[in-house]
Amino acid sequence: MTWLALLLIGVAVTDLAHSVLQRNVFPQVVGTASVVAVALGAGLTDLRDLAPVAVVVVAVLAWGFTVSHGFAAGGRPWLPLAVLGLSFVVAVAAAPVAPAIPADALLARWLHAVPWSAAGAAPDGVLLLAALAMVQLSTGNVIVRLVLAATGTVLPALHGTAGDPETRLKGGRLLGPMERLVIFGLGLAGELTAAGIVIAAKGLLRFPELQLKTEQERIHQLTEYFLVGSFVSWLVPLTSLVLLS
């Protein structure tokens, strides 16, 4: 799963950089730099590793550029989803032939030296765990908005305007990552029942907001936005848990 971890780290860092500083090229540069840095730290420096790392870099660049255009007016939100989906499937399919992180790699030596419970853990598993945890942050939000735009639930041109349901259901950008991290963490701890309670609680807490009298004209739009966005958001940590199982 080494290549998959590299891909997810590059995508996650790209999205985090874009959320901090929205520029056309900066997020992609930071994302690809993170892939190269992690590959070096994981000891993936042999000639046979260069081609897969280069493919990951290209996939991260394609993700960053297509996301920028997908959110633009007249953009194609399905295109970045296709790029991410294809890259993800290829990385998962190639997992059996992906190289293991050498014992003398910087990451492996660091894990061996740390005084926490991670000491002695398999570097490949730790790297994938870190990558999946990072995906729960900004990347989860990006995927949700792309799916909403691709399904016509919300128009990309309305992003940040008064017609954007997200401006009415305030806090979604912050609650989404927090919710995904809680579900992901509870799943890792084997407390899937508790994760289900978190999901149910969100619906109960949002219900009064969806029933505001001032929102009756757009209540169906808001409900659809909430349901589609929530289910897509929940699929991100659940899929992550499947990869770690």
Give keywords.
single chain, 245 residues, mainly alpha, 2 domains, 11 helices, 71% helix
Structure report:
This protein is an all-alpha fold and 245 residues long. It has 2 domains: 1-119, no CATH class; 136-245, no CATH class. It has 11 helices and no strands. α1 (2-20) packs parallel to α6 (123-135) and α3 (47-70) runs antiparallel to α4. The chain is globular. The two termini are 13 Å apart.
How would you summarize the topology of this molecule?
Elements: H1 2-20, H2 26-41, H3 47-70, H4 78-93, H5 106-113, H6 123-135, H7 138-150, H8 165-168, H9 172-188, H10 192-210, H11 219-244
Helix pairs in contact: 1-2, 1-3, 1-4, 1-6, 2-3, 3-4, 6-11, 7-11, 9-10, 9-11
Summarize the model shown.
By secondary structure, the protein is mainly α. It has helices spanning 2-20, 26-41, 47-70, 78-93, 106-113, 123-135, 138-150, 165-168, 172-188, 192-210, 219-244. It has two domains: 1-119, no CATH class; 136-245, no CATH class.
Strand content: under 5%
- Find the count of extended strands (DSSP E, 2+ residues): 0
How is the biggest beta sheet arranged? none
Q: Helix coverage percent of residues?
A: over 70%
